[in-house]
Amino acid sequence: MEATPLAFADRASAALDDPVLQTALAGIRTGWVAGRQRAAERLPEFEALRDLGRDIKDHTLACLDLYLEAFEANVTACGGTVHWARDAAEARVLVLELCRAAGARTVTKSKSMISEEIGLNPFLEAHGIVPVETDLGEYILQIAGQPPSHIVGPAIHMTKDAVADLFARHHGGERRETAADLVAEARRILRERYLAADVGITGANFLVAETGSVVTVTNEGNAELTQGLPRTHIVIASLEKLVPTMADAFTLLRLLARSATGQEFSAYTTVLTGPKRPGDRDGPEAFHVVLLDNGRTQMLGSELRAMLRCIRCGACMNHCPVYLAAGGHAYGWVYPGPMGSVLTPQLVGIERAWPLPNASTFCGRCEEVCPVRIPLPGLMRFWREEQFRRRLVPPTARHGLKLWGFLARRPVLYRLVTGIAARLLAKLARGGRLAKLPLAEGWTATRDLPAPQGRTFMSQWRARGGHR
């Protein structure tokens, strides 16, 4: 998926005018948001568990080199192979070489944001290998020719009727009306692809250093068929998916499903350790793990280090008022919502993604619900400061910030100017509202701006005997 986050404002505007999308996004509030709250309330130690999850990730990042070495040693001891990729291009080539070595013509894939990040599907297709997405949401998007709009529910922007129309066009036959019939139709088609695949490609929710294991989490069982039926299994994961022990992985799993979908545990949680051994009835004959850096080690030594705690639950976007209004496609790349507003500028460059950190009201709900307590508003603020430093912000906004900074450093002048402005705006208002205001057309074009009422806070504070 080509990164085009610079067009965020245009795509967000179109999303606001899309009634089908708005209906689909409203379902997140009544579904996952409410579900997370109920799941957290049912677990008395939920807040303590969040602290523990944060500490596990921080410890792992502090000792990442040691745990990466241990993971590779244990994967090798179990009969697998670890491959290291510095960037997306290296990762793509590694996967292609492994597929060719296995004689693959068709590969099945379970949902993997890393494969989206590196643009794996079009690369394999360009080299004569057919990738088949097996996650229902990803399969829908693959035949629709669309990118994911959410990291947990990739097709969350589509309604059941839209999927029914898509299946009728793509599969032929009569139009299915119920969700159960649509799922059955997808299952029938995908079963044939599972059996025909030469290679299975999955992501990983966690990599366990002490055992060399890979943990995958799904609600459909597609990852199990993808990794268990083909002769070769390839795991693509980024470095920060590592955890020290199996106990650490299951601690984070207790947070993951509750934060993502409101479940206590996902329907399928699978631990895979190496290829099949003598006596095993199923499993791959060859097991490969492609570990991707792609800018992560740079983040380790920067102000963005805390972003590497992310366990990809999607809670930040489920609770973000901007995401819930604009949808995932507005962000223009793989990672939407608050986590994408921090991660995308690092991965594609702030020059291409500078609008994303501005796509936030800084209400703080993302940090409030993050299961590993990532300070997302603070990290977005870092990128805002960086874009200002590099003069990426439009001149009007840049000069406005400079003017505000000048006044804010001079409290007496600040109070004088704001007092005059408040009185002037109150006089210009009609019925307590401003229908049009210079330099604020982006707001007043679609809604009225409430006018200041009465005296400023500081003047009222002084009148009531306030002091510093």
Automatic annotation (TrEMBL):
PROSITE patterns (alphabetical): 4FE4S_FER_1, 4FE4S_FER_2
Record-given protein name: LutB/LldF family L-lactate oxidation iron-sulfur protein
Alphabetical list of Pfam families matching this protein: Fer4_8, LUD_dom, LutB_C
Record NCBIfam families: LutB/LldF family L-lactate oxidation iron-sulfur protein
Gene3D superfamilies documented for this protein: Alpha-helical ferredoxin, NagB/RpiA/CoA transferase-like
Protein's UniProt keywords contain Electron transport: yes
Keywords assigned: 4Fe-4S, Electron transport, Iron, Iron-sulfur, Metal-binding, Repeat, Transport
SUPFAM superfamilies documented for this protein: alpha-helical ferredoxin, NagB/RpiA/CoA transferase-like
Organism the protein comes from: Benzoatithermus flavus
Domain of life: Bacteria
4Fe-4S ferredoxin-type domain boundaries: 301-330
Entries under InterPro entries matching the protein: 4Fe4S_Fe-S-bd (IPR017896), 4Fe4S_Fe_S_CS (IPR017900), FTHF_cligase-like_sf (IPR024185), Helical_ferredxn (IPR009051), LUD_dom (IPR003741), LutB/LldF (IPR004452), LutB_C (IPR024569), NagB/RpiA_transferase-like (IPR037171)
